[in-house]
Design goal:
Two copies of one chain form a homodimer. By secondary structure, the first copy, chain A, is α/β, with parallel strands linked by helices. Chain A has a single domain, classed as Metallo-beta-lactamase, Chain A (4-Layer Sandwich). Helices cover 23% and strands 28% of the residues of chain A. The first copy, chain A, has six helices and 14 strands. The first copy, chain A, has a six-stranded mixed beta sheet. In chain A, strands 7-8-9-10-13-14 form a six-stranded mixed beta sheet. In chain A, a hairpin with a 2-residue loop joins strand 9 and strand 10. Chain A starts with 5 loop residues before the first strand and ends in a 6-residue tail after the last helix. At the A-B interface, strand 1, helix 1 and helix 4 of A face strand 1, helix 1 and helix 4 of B.
């Protein structure tokens, strides 16, 4: 599925259970990072240095409410550009990505898929048989829809139209997992996702989401304003 | 590197920071699991059921001192065989693996590499461009050598002769990581491993290991006797 020059690292931040992803073309050394976290900046920047990676882009899947992004720190240390979906309305970003827009690193391309619903500007990214789903699609779950312009009906449409239409063997890499699972596949989520799988209708999904009764994320008052400034408020 | 029928899952147990690996041939559905943990048996067994996997083997990298294995529970629920390195002397095991011995699942083979030093019976496993190193080689670190027949000199030889001789791009999947990193490569560890990398000699390594002054693992009194009975003492 992947060319032999495709190098891939999944990294985990324990406090917010966030996954960060580093993708590199090992020939040209051009690299991108998805959803870096401020707290693990030192670890991630050391790996970038050890690999000799030329960090070209930081891609955010959305304006996170549970952790502060490491994007701004990485932009200070490298010549990378910070990229977010155009719906996210982050004025500090260098590139606002439209649906289906592609970015290249070395000989590889990564494609933005607009997947709003958890937030207005949620964007998934597809690259080399993998889809990075942010908080739109989680493993056997999905992002909440009760704040930050959330809409269950819109999230259902995003997941069905943009993600469940990918090949079943596509590997799903989410922004979080709380049970120690690191990946899934589109085929597994279509069958077994507890909120969306097994042919659940939009009405089923909206009802499930409306009954979740979740408490607000601990860091939302700090994280959202900071992330609107690329983590450097 | 991998055939398209190669399906791979990395799973994490938070209390002991242990990685479990599930490998499957998605055509025949034959699968193996490496280092399952008793506490996450339900999660892992559910994934096996969802995949429709036929679990053929449980492979242990060694007699763990920090967690109880899920091997026995999996053997009760499936027809799998429990496999350990012949040096581990576990009487409950079904198959004792010698150095270089191979097992097959579907169209894939996995090869035992005897890597003693952390314990007498430590075994790494090579499959499809990946090496599962147990506690022999960790990311930028290695297993301790101060109990369970540990020997720093022996561990140095194992890592140099059996692991550092693999192609540099081989992906390293260890039994643990405490910093949220999920993989490395042989090339990165040869350069940057803090105890072994950058051309450190056996004398350097033995000195580093002798000065670590680690406290004993919290669960050793429970885990080792239980694991000598495949987790079902």
């Amino acid at each position: 599925m992947s060319g032999s020059n495709f190098q891939f690292f999944q990294l985990f931040e324990h406090e917010s259970s966030t996954y960060t992803y580093l993708l590199m073309d090992s020939e040209s050394k051009e690299a991108i990072i998805i959803d870096p976290v401020s707290e693990t900046f030192e670890r991630d920047f050391r790996l970038i240095e050890e690999l000799g990676a030329k960090l070209k882009y930081v891609l955010e899947t959305h304006v996170h409410a549970d952790h502060v992004t490491g994007a701004g720190k990485l932009r200070e240390k490298t010549s990378c550009k910070v990229c977010v979906g155009s719906g996210a309305k982050i004025s500090c970003a260098d590139i606002l990505l439209d649906d289906s827009q592609e970015l290249s690193f070395g000989s590889f391309k990564i494609k933005a898929l607009s997947t709003p619903g958890h937030t207005d500007g949620c964007t998934s990214y597809y690259c080399e048989g993998r889809v990075f789903t942010g908080d739109a699609l989680l493993i056997r779950a999905c992002g909440r829809t009760d704040f930050q312009q959330g809409s269950s009906a819109r999230l259902y449409d995003s997941i069905h139209q943009k993600l469940f239409s990918l090949p079943e063997e596509t590997i799903v890499y989410p922004a979080h997992d709380y049970k120690g699972v690191t990946s899934s596949s589109i085929g597994l989520e279509k069958k077994f996702n507890l909120r969306l799988g097994g042919g659940k209708t939009k009405e089923d999904f909206v009802k499930i989401m409306s009954e979740l009764k979740l408490s607000p994320p601990k860091k939302i008052e700090i994280a959202v304003p900071a992330n609107l400034l690329c983590g450097q408020g």
